Task: structure prediction
Amino acid sequence: MTKGSVKDRLYKDALVTVDKIFESDRLSNEESIKELSDLKTQIELRINLLKEIDKGNDDERIL
Result:
């Protein structure tokens, strides 16, 4: 399995999670906002990690 396909699958899983939180009858609006906010934080952390990895790869190419 290539990196792209793993990332694609994770992206689709994240979208499903967002939809489930948004449409959940068991969560109040406040709870949904908190859940989505927590998910956003996790996504931002992973984006920053990927940026650092790419930056490291770019630095290696320069050397």
In short: The chain has a mean pLDDT of 84. Helices lie at 3-23, 29-62.
